[in-house]
Amino acid sequence: MKKDKYNYNVRELINQYQTNCDRIKVIAETCEKEQRERNEAENKEYVTLVRENQMLQMKMQIATANHLRENPNATQDAVTLLRENAAAGKKTEIIFVRDMMMVSDVAKGGVVPLNVQDILQPLTEGFILDKVGLPMPTGLAGDYVWPTYEMVEATIAGEGVALTDTKIPFNKLTANPQRIGIAIPVTNQSLNQSDGILETIVKSIMPMAIRLLLNKILFSVEKIKGADNLVGPYVDKVDTAIALSAVPTFKELNGMKAKVLETGVDGSHMCFVMTKSMEAILEGEPINSKGVYIPMIQNHTLCGLPVYTTNCIRQTSGDSEAKTVTEFIGVGDWRYQPMGLFGTLRFTVDPYSQARKDSVDFVLNCDYATKTLRPEAFLLGKVAAA
């Protein structure tokens, strides 16, 4: 029988992919330590490694598709492998690469490739990360850098008159990644008794916790504890926030939009961010008191811009008995707040750390970075207390 040329060894593909990632990391760390850009040889190697990893990803996708086509019970196979490894005291490795997921024991084969969409909801779904328009590249390596420059203007010159040289001031902005993670211990008794524990943990609880934190980071008006490099665009704007009425008026909110447009943002990708309760209040308020009644917000649109809601933009202080809530409304162009995932999601099932408690640790780690490229593209309004 002729061997299928697309019948790839998944373990070999994974090992080579991880080896390439490790080498890319070494190059990046060397350049960072020596405070320099990649040299010609390093850049050539980097490009080669990235291209090879792209090819490896394609081969892993083919292997995953073949496995799913031939094995309708792939998810159950993964659950079985997890339980067998836990019972035998073996560490289980779960690897995420793009839209794939591979479940295996660390020591040897037993790889079960899965379609990650069937197992893990994308981290950008469920809140408003995927709605406001911020770029979210994945699989990053090395530095997350954006070149910046100041606008220059042409000059008028007479016939035969030499033009004066114009210099463009170039600079760059760099975002440094930080690790985000969560660990959930599950007793072996629960693991054995519950058929859906893997799906529950992987598909719902852990990704949701990561998504929640990313939303807090981006839309909060306060810096999240420990997030030294992960800071959203509104954190530094509380003290200079535009004063709004207890029930903000159309004129006030349209004025916020105008102030951002004055900075040169074209407005085609702008939006408002507020709490759901504030949106409800504004849906019941007219644009003005004259003429035909027109609600301020219609179909989640305000002043011609989309409205997205999250409670993360609300500021809460004090204890439960004397709690003070301050409402804020943000407007901005989220193209200038990219957030990138470095490397891959790292999910490990560890039966050792909690062995004395007869528990298994489910651990999810990932490295994210974000940067406000143009602070002037964002404006914050503070709603007066009622």
Count of helices? 8
Mean pLDDT: 77
The proportion of residues forming helix, as a percent range, comes to: 25-40%
Order of helices and strands: HHHEEEHEEEHHEHEHEEEEEEEE
Counting copies of identical and different chains, the oligomeric state is single chain
Secondary structural class = alpha+beta
Q: What is the end-to-end distance?
A: 79 Å
Using the CA coordinates, give the radius of gyration: 26 Å
**Widest beta sheet: strand line-up:** 3-2-1-14-15-6
The number of E-state strands comes to: 16
Largest sheet: 6 strands, antiparallel
Report the sheet-strand fraction: 15-25%
Shape estimate = globular
Low-pLDDT segments, ≥5 res: 116-126
What does the model show?
The protein is an alpha+beta fold and 386 residues long. Among the domains are: 1-119, no CATH class; 235-338 and 374-383, hypothetical protein PF0899 fold (2-Layer Sandwich), CATH 3.30.2320. Helix content is 32%, strand content 25%. The protein is built from eight helices and 16 strands. The chain has helices at 10-33, 40-70, 74-87, 116-119, 188-193, 197-219, 250-261, 276-283; strands at 92-97, 100-105, 112-115, 144-149, 170-175, 178-187, 242-244, 270-274, 301-302, 305-309, 315-317, 324-326, 328-333, 339-350, 359-370, 378-383. The chain has a six-stranded antiparallel beta sheet. α1 runs antiparallel to α2. The chain is globular, with a radius of gyration of 26 Å. It starts with 9 loop residues before the first helix and ends with a strand. 28% of the residues are buried. Residues 116-126 have low confidence and may be disordered.
